Structures are given as C-alpha cells and as structure tokens.
Amino acid sequence: MKDQFHFISAFKNIETDRSGPLVDDIIRYTKEKKTLSWNWFKFPSRAREEFGYAMQAYVGKQLNRDQLLQELQKSWKKAEQK
Question: What is the tally of structural domains in the chain?
Fold first, then answer.
C-alpha cells in the first residue's frame, strides 16, 4: 500500500517516504491542528449502528439512494431525541 499508493503509514514500525509537497502539507496541517477528526466517532452510537444497517441495505440493493437518505435522516432524528 505504501509503495504503490504512496500512503503515509499510520504506524511507526512501517517506514514510508515522507517527502513531496503533498506529504509536507499534510504534516504541516496536522501539526497546526488544521485537520478534522474522523467525525463518525462523534455520532451517537445507536445512529452509527443504524447507519451501517441502512448502508448495507443500499449496497444490497434493498434501498435506493433516496430511501437510504431517508433512513439516515430518521436514525439521526431518533438519536437527537435521546
């Protein structure tokens, strides 16, 4: 992955080539705290679980795009009420 796609490893024991303008910008932005966290970790746990079910149904062609969005919205509204 690191060689073919030039990913920056998240692990210290996997050395990567940390050179180039994109890598430099990413490291600088991270140090300056200008990046965002993985926001789905901040979602209510029940909503995350229901999102997963809805997305699986969409991938399995049990829901279309509009139905998926409706299911996600319903899950979010239900989580807000708790």
Answer: 1
